[in-house]
Amino acid sequence: MTAPFPSAVDQALAAAVRAPSPHNTQPWRFVVAGPRIEVWLDRSRVLTVADPAAREARLSCGAAVYNLALVLRDNGLGAQVRVLAKPAEPDLLAVIRIDGGAGRARPDRQLAEAVFRRHTNRRPLSAQPVSETCRARLRSAALAEGGVLEFLDGSSRYARVTALARQAEAVQAADERFRAESARWTGRPPESPDGVPTVAFGPPAGVPAVVPLRSSHQNPAIPTRQFEQDPCLAVVLTREHGVAADVRAGLVLQRVLLTATADGLATSCVSQPFETPGTRGPLLELFREIGEPHTLVRVGHGLPVRMTARRPVAEVTIVQSASDTSPR
To answer: In angstroms, rounded to a whole number, what is the distance separating the alpha carbons of residues 50 and 151?
Structure first.
């Protein structure tokens, strides 16, 4: 007997769990209640040292929301996304309502196809520049989700931002708490359903990199290589601040990452300067006139690397029967 084809909701949930997260912690839970899908923050998977306010975890959940809605729409359904910020339920981050969607235009098919190919590339990238055409598409992707993507190379902020990234990485590498937390989530076996396996690590840098790879994501068993000395770096911003803005920024980030993947570009997020108090404040101040910065994205051309695994959808999803549901 053959297994039934997965439903559109099944496909959307499988896409949601492919979202990126710090150390591949996957800090999300989903509740399916008829035509409603709730996205919740899983506090047990928040990095308490690197992300005590759960900003990066909410960013990851926002990326999962984007994948959910994208694949639902790609299947011809309507998907109305509502980002929430309720003090009474601070971990309920978003609700997606599904309808028949008759007559709705489907999203860019290339983005939906990129969901299961997108991955973090921790390896050195080539010297081939990111074209202005690609940059324009990435900026447009951010704008389409209500955010801003600003490329920093060539700007006066570039040197300051990269210096803060190096400062933050040095602080984390010397801090026993950061090292212990990273150790819990990295160096996993290749098929581990969460965390970062050693096969996904990058090589040690031959000379100090302008934008540092996390020391916890380096594999000393592979040959040392030189990373790009003038990496293409962009910052994801929102005009708003607060919990809802973190989630919104996740939608912005994921659309940018999928657009980059569809264009054949490699990406990785540079999070260290957001995670240490001594660098987060100066970083926020640097962009105060533009908006709230949420993460830095390293973009370029590189060879594909092994993707990290994800937990099964059933492990992170509750399906409620009609009798269990109540209006929210």
So the answer is: 25
- Nearest Cα residue to 165 out of 123, 199, 208: 208
Half-sphere exposure of 216 (CA within 13 A, CB side): 27
Write down all domains in the chain, each with its CATH number in brackets. Answer: 8-116+311-324 (3.40.109.10), 132-300 (3.40.109.10)
Residue in the block written with tokens 């933050």: 168
C-alpha span between 74 and 52 (Å, rounded): 35
pLDDT tens for 262-312 read: 999 999 999 999 999 999 999 999 999 999 999 999 999 998 888 999 999
| Nearest one of 231, 249, 230 to 292, comparing CA atoms | 249
**pTM for this predicted structure:** 0.94
Number of other residues whose CB lies within 10 A of the CB of residue 202: 21
Strand partners, 137: none
Average pLDDT value for residue range 315-321: 93
Burial letters 134-145, b for 16+ CB under 10 A, else e: bbebbbebbeeb
Pairing outcome for strands 266-270 and 292-300 = antiparallel
